[in-house]
């Protein structure tokens, strides 16, 4: 019995290590997406201001953040293994956690994780055919790639937060919010927009806009 307790204690330590790494990846993901929303989803006047201030630079930044968000969501929802190598993924973490924690909690989490995986279906196609690899057919015919709407990325991120908060409660017996990571004043997208408005004398936009 003592050996079993020691084994379970070691497994809990491993699970916490895996969780902390996934937690860090998730926080960075929401951090990047918050800056993306501030810059590119705050209204047409904001977009006009960015175009005035260096359209090529901001178009590049927009595309890079989008691809990073796609890649991170796909990595976090990857299978437990790729060949003989384990992945740092939610599926792998949950499989290990189910061996230690209550099965009924695992079932609830499985449902939330399945919803997250479904929400990343289109993103996974982009990763496989365009971002991580250059599939010849899709490179020649990019219109074959599915269109990803802003709302679909938001849905995937909401699903991720639901999974992460549940895991946080299960593994650390505490709750936390992922959706709005704190960014120090003077270091976020809103501050950059304020500086650019001062330079160009542009009015602040209160309009909602999705891209």
Q: Key terms for this structure?
A:
globular; two-stranded antiparallel sheet; mainly alpha
**How do the SSEs run, as a string of H and E?**
HHHEEHHHHHH
Beta strand count: 2
The share of residues in helices is 55-70%
**Alpha-carbon Rg, integer:** 20 Å
The major beta sheet can be summarized as:
2 strands, antiparallel
Task: Specify the structural class.
Answer: mainly alpha
Q: Provide the β-strand percentage band.
A: under 5%
Strand order of the largest sheet: 1-2
Low-confidence stretches: 205-211
Shape: globular
Distance between the termini: 58 Å
| Average pLDDT rating | 90
Q: Treating each run of at least 4 consecutive H or I residues as one helix, how many helices?
A: 9
Structural description of this entry:
This protein is an all-alpha fold. Helix content is 70%, strand content 2%. It contains 9 helices and 2 strands. The chain has helices at 2-40, 44-52, 55-76, 90-98, 103-119, 121-131, 136-140, 150-172, 189-200, and strands spanning 81-82, 85-86. A hairpin with a 2-residue loop joins strand 1 (81-82) and strand 2. Helix 1 (2-40) runs parallel beside helix 9 (189-200), helix 2 (44-52) crosses helix 9 (189-200) and helix 3 (55-76) packs across helix 6. The longest helix is centred in the first third of the chain and has 39 residues, at 2-40. It is globular. The chain starts with a helix and ends in an 11-residue tail after the last helix.
């Amino acid at each position: 019995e003592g050996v079993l307790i020691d084994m379970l204690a070691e497994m809990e330590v491993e699970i916490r290590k895996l969780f902390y790494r996934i937690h860090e990846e998730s926080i960075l993901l929401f951090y990047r997406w918050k800056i993306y929303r501030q810059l590119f989803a705050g209204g047409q006047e904001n977009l006009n201001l960015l175009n005035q201030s260096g359209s090529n630079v901001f178009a590049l930044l927009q595309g890079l953040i989008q691809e990073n968000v796609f890649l991170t969501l796909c990595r976090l929802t990857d299978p437990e293994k790729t060949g003989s190598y384990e992945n740092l993924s939610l599926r792998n973490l949950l499989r290990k956690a189910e061996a230690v924690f209550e099965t009924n909690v695992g079932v609830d989490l499985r449902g939330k994780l399945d919803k997250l995986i479904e929400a990343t279906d289109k993103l996974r196609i982009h990763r496989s055919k365009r971002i991580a690899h250059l599939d010849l057919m899709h490179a020649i015919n990019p219109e074959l790639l599915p269109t990803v709407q802003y709302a679909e990325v938001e849905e995937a991120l909401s699903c991720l937060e639901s999974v992460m908060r549940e895991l946080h409660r299960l593994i650390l017996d505490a709750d936390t919010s992922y959706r709005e990571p704190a960014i120090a004043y003077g270091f976020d997208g809103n501050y950059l927009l304020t500086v650019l408005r001062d330079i160009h004398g542009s009015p602040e936009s209160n309009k909602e806009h999705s891209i």
